[in-house]
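for ur thesis appendix - Dimethylallyltransferase. copy paste whatever u need, i formatted it the way the template wanted (i think)
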Amino acid sequence: MSKIIFVVTSNNRLGNTGRSTGLWLEELASPYFVFRSAGLTIDIASPSGGAAPIDELSLSSPWLSEEGNRFINDRAVTAQLQNTLRLDDVDANAYDSVFFVGGLGAAWDFFPSEAARSVTETIFNNSGIVSGVCHGVLGLTNARAAGRENLLKGAAVTAVSNEEERMLGVAEIVPVLPEDLLKSLGSKYSCAAPLDRHVVVDGRIMTGQNPASAAPLARAVLVGLGCS
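the 3d part is after this line
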């Protein structure tokens, strides 16, 4: 049975704005149930461990989906989110895949992150799949690979676009724009129109652009794991 670890943000503050943030629920809930339906064993980790924050905006209309409602009403699942593993303590050798969940909070604690780098490199070097959606793709950006200064150099990838950041009004707030960072690393970045689903698979590196891309990305991971 395949085993996957989700990584979610621990950061609940939107910089110095006084506003709260966290993970984006749709980007956790939809993939979670895709993997659970396929029989995967699922763990959830975060940089700090313990309770992980959910962006309040993702809990309201029109962003809250059927899967999101299902997630927040599932006591076993929400208990996992309240008791996430500390990323530094995770034995990445135990997992076949990592899935970095998005949300604005990730812009602060996914890059640069030595814990995220270590987990990504270990799973990838063990022939596993490394994946991320939206701001979660930042969790992959610090990893290195044999023969390359960066795992994502030359790789086809996507993540939240600069245009989507501007639409959200956070382009001048977040400390790093994923699109700009990926391009600076020498990645082959692509994106769809804002809010349209877009998933890019480059071997065992799999990325999604935005919340609409989360479930399709999870299904791509399943194919890669031979679990579809």
